[in-house]
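Input record (one chain):
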Amino acid sequence: MYSRVAAFSHSYRFVVVLFWLIVLVLSSLVAPKAIDSLVSGGFDVENTESAKASKLLEEMGLTQSTIDIVFRANDGYLEYQQFLEKIDRATSELKSIPKVAKIQTPQNSSHPSVSDDGRTVIVVLWIDGSLDETQRLVPEIRSLIEEQKGISTYVTGFASVFYDIEKASESDLRRGETVSLPLVLLVLLFVFGAVLAAFIPLITGLVAIAGTVGLIFLASLTMEMSVFSLNIATFLGLGASVDYSLLIVSRFREELGNLNVRESVIKTVETAGKSVFFSASTTSLGLAGLLFFDIVMLRSIAVGGIIVIALSAALALTLTPALLSIIGTRVNRYRIPFTRRLGSNTFWSTMSKFVMRRPLIIAIPVLCILLFAGIPFQRIQLGAPAADMLPESYESRKGMEIIKEHFGPGWSYPIIIAVKARDGSIKSAESVEQLKDFTSKIGSDSRVDSVFSIVDFHSAWGTQDYIAYYSQFELIPDDEMKRQVNALSSEDITYITVNTTFSGSDLEARELVSDIRSYQPRGPTIDAYSTGLTAGVMDSVDFLYDRFPFAIALVVIAIYFALFILFRSVLLPAKAVVMNALSIFASFGALVFIFQEGRLSNITGVEATGQIEATLPILLFFILFGISMDYEVFLLSRIRESYLQSGDNNKAVPEGLERTGPVITSAALIIILVGLGFATGDLLLIKIWAIGLVIGVTIDVTIVRSLMVPALMKLFGRWNWWAPSILKPRSKIKIQ
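The corresponding structure, as predicted from the sequence alone:
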């Protein structure tokens, strides 16, 4: 197969180049539409208690989303009435927005919206639309708010936060590309020492990114796709695609010393091309693990990642050989002074021989280091995406910080409880009695600031007062209380708002939600379901990590068999899986140490986050597992090639490292530089993800591949190559 692909790419090289040029042009035409078609959320989980609550609220007709506008008096004291008049003038133009259903102010709301010092007021806009629809109104709302002298205004709330996250993601994407591309080119120029050779991998990477953006746009027409899929696709396009092409170009230059151009292309694709194919397969299998989680963000990243990896492999197997066929022997022209041609490197051979002379002395301490580095991972605290993902300069984060400071951390993160009457009306005597008992029990908890529901309008009213009120509800003239009751309930559904003293992802808030869920109303009349950020985090974590082991098992088994097919060995794939797991475990420990606990904040400038976003470990595991396998495939493929020629394990390992060591180092350096480029962005989620990948790849290349692999290859000797005889490849080599 590989020889036929190579022969075709050589014979029809101009056709191949033209085809990919057309792909590039068409993708560039649809690329501007891609971002607008993507969603910035996508963290929600279906079929959980919080999801059931959300569906009940939708059934009740509460499909509206909200935007919080924070007004803060800058200096001195503003007379209260004067303050409110300024706010009215500031928000007057917002009434012209068709989707604004209600402007909730201190005058028409029982919810506390004025700070104790009287200098901060919160106005809530109720938007008739989904979170995504509300999010798209944020720039219009910000532009229509009239500036008032002496008052600072901040448009915030979840919709605003997600809008700013989307903008930050776009900015980080552009910044990552701007920083990474020159660095990647410099590495390629250095390792190849020739201009033409260096530009070939970069061209394939750019085509892979453009093609992926176009395909992501097409995918978004049939399914929800997260904005983060573009960041991941760009990262992998610059990293994996360049790495694959780097391997092809370096092997072509090696073969060109003994063969003509056509033969060199064919031999390159037969050897390095096979490694690329299996590397792409293992990386895609790793990314496919994300498809087991029915979350838009993870699923869309999996789709985007698999697309870019498949495109990268296709480009490395077709476009790169076609370009090499056109350039031919000129691939080494335009030499760059003070650089060395990528090829044999005695350092790697010397290093591997040193390790293989003392395998236990090397392997045991390295294993201990990896296990020790991973210890902090046991202390991980999982949270949800929130405003603190953004830099302090963003408007939505500033607003959320002001709310937290002057209204308490729980104001923006209420617990919402949807309540449904099983039979009959939610305002029946039985339902009201059970509802009042339920809210009283919640309100008596010291961790609760306030409870608001259709049975908590008047502190002086008892259960019998509310039963009497609702028994004649239809006869009561229209007034403010009746309007609020109608806003809070339908015939058989209502909801309760519980304000706490904690932020949404705090451990105490989660314990409170668990306790509230354990209360449950007495009697058979009503059912209650909790939602909100805290409940959503809890349900998401339970859902994700219940499936995580199953997804890991399937991915590991699939990758094991893919490597078994490639290496025809029982032991080598098992070692690869274990070593990958150890390097990932160590990198997770480093992330907790650096970000969650902030232990290196004086060096890194990163303050402790207190938690890690719940999807990040899952995302990092499957991406790192796939990328790390690339280097394992590159290395062991070359070792196996040498072993099949000599039959000597001790000779094959140094030879394989000597040939692939510079390539793997260069490929890893490219991934690391691309990761660091993305780590310069504003969005904390992307920053943690990028640094996690950098740490994982660094550990994998410096410790695992250079030390553990040769040590274990020596310790296991001929057992490295054992497989049932029926599955062994034909070879004239006899193992002694």
